[in-house]
Amino acid sequence: MARAEIAKPKMFNVKSYGAVGDGVAVETEAIQKTIDACHAAGGGVVWLPAGDFVTGTLHLKSHITLSLDYGASLLGSQNWADYPTDRLRRAREGQSECLLYAEDATHIRLEGLGVIDGRGTPEAFPKRRPGRRGDSRPGLLRFENCENLTFSGLTYKRPAFWGLHLVDCKTIHFTGVTVRFLNNGPNNDGLDLDGCENVLIENCDIQSGDDAICLKSSRYPCRNVVVRGCRVCSHTAPLKFGSSTHGGFINVSLTNCYFYDSPMGAMKLALVDGGRLEDIEISRVVMENVGCPIFIRLGNRGSTFGKGGKAPVGTLKNIRISDVVAKVTLQDRDQSGDYSEREKAKAGPIMISGIPGH
Asked: Phi, psi (5° rounding) for residue 14?
């Protein structure tokens, strides 16, 4: 019996389009040419062999796999000018500047054993850009209104702002991803999923400075989300719903995860801008060296994120939490040898908070 032939994807080596990979030259143009050629050919693999490739903002497109070999690093430029926003949609929340960008695209895959390093240190990108108003630190990645996205195997490091920011995207798979954002700078979220549907996050190793797995819903609900088999630590929260919650959160499952070294709390489920937070299943979680292990809140901030008016108070129901073991740790003692009130507050008990009349 003849062996079935497996169609091989078309390969587009960035070095064939002028990239050098010496860690010095800014190679945005060469890498973008490779992406555009791949897209024009109907899709394929944009291949980064071993080397250090410095780049500014890259626009990914439909039916493209960005594949990094072991020893390959995609390095964010440390020049503000390499992150223009004139061809990007204005971000609904956070900064518009980013290293990798896509909009209205389908079937994008980021894979391999290499590293995507934003090099967004506070020294290179201070929170207030000299000579400019506001905060324009670039994030690592922003995809808007995209479908069929896969993130497999890569290591992500040092964004200047948020890390992997997906807005209104559908059918997303994170598998075997490594995130290393600890102790780099402020606002270094791990995965920010805003209004996303049909998401699977599995077997990932995440260390983030700010919220690690962060579900947001500035306009549309986050729904049908599964998180399993992940190791997560964060200076703020390994799991966070909010604080943008106008669309709500529906049908979210987290199981068999390990949360550790998270002094400001572990799981934070908040609904403060209307919408619904319901049908949440959390089970088989082990936590070590965390602050408040579980925090659930119905609030009334009422933001509509530009729609006008104030959102009504939402509804919070059908949250099931089981088989959770948490070791809560106080972090510091004051000069008298006692724990400070601030540290006691961080390491509080399980908290469930509502509003009178709701």
From this structure: -60, -25
